[in-house]
Amino acid sequence: MAYRRTATVQARLDAQRETVLRSAMELLAERGYSGCSMAAVAERAGIATGSLYQHFAGKTDLSVELFRTVVTHEVEAVTAAAARWSDPRRRATAVLETFAARALQSPRLAYALLAEPADAAVDAERLVFRRTFRDLLAAQIAAGVDSGLLPEQDPGLTAAALVGAVGEALVGPLAAGSPPDEVLPALTVFILRAMGAPAATPVDPLEGEA
User: Fold this and answer.
1) Both 116 and 163 in a single domain?
2) Same domain, yes or no, for 176 and 90?
């Protein structure tokens, strides 16, 4: 008869896995991927290194799950920020502004997400990450086009270009530790121009803010 874990054992393992991921996220924010060895994560989590392999096959498996966890948090944050606005132009800028602001507040973590050399499995997750943000942004641009607030364009192409450009534009400020208030206003202007929004597009709270 195959062994079946009891509910108590499974709950303990699930809790331990959450502790491992939380510990790995702390190390990622402090040291990047290079500092997230299995031994270092196990030590931070307060468990034996061998116990870590009950949850993850190796560093690559852990890194991929860690990346997905962090990205899920970022997607939730930008989605909530965009939902505060009725104007699709403002929803579009909110997606990228929120990501940029959060990145600048956690520069080491953001650099790991965007640019730190990693293995092929993490690079594949980065592509998924970019596509997810592209699709979120493209939906807002499309709404702006449909409502006549933005000129005719390919929303997916514009969104992909913006995601790439903003990511590249953040690398220098992340390395320099620039505060958000020195970077975000210029990014906002760039985003609006790239979408074809009029120069007079308001960037302060609009009447339709939720």
Assistant:
1) yes
2) yes
The number of angstroms, rounded, from the C-alpha of 145 to the middle of its chain's C-alpha atoms is: 26
Q: Are residues 72 and 156 in the same domain?
A: yes
Backbone φ/ψ region at 137: left (φ over 0), alpha (ψ -120 to 50), beta: alpha
The enclosing domain of 49 has a CATH number of 1.10.10.60
Same domain? 40 vs 107: no
Residues 83 and 143 in one domain: yes
| Domain of residue 13, residue span | 1-56
Written as tens digits, the pLDDT of the chain (210 aa) is 455 668 777 778 778 889 999 999 999 889 888 888 999 999 999 999 998 898 899 988 998 998 888 889 999 999 999 999 999 999 999 999 999 999 998 888 888 888 888 889 888 988 988 999 999 999 999 999 999 999 999 999 999 999 999 999 998 888 777 788 888 889 999 999 999 987 555 555 444 444
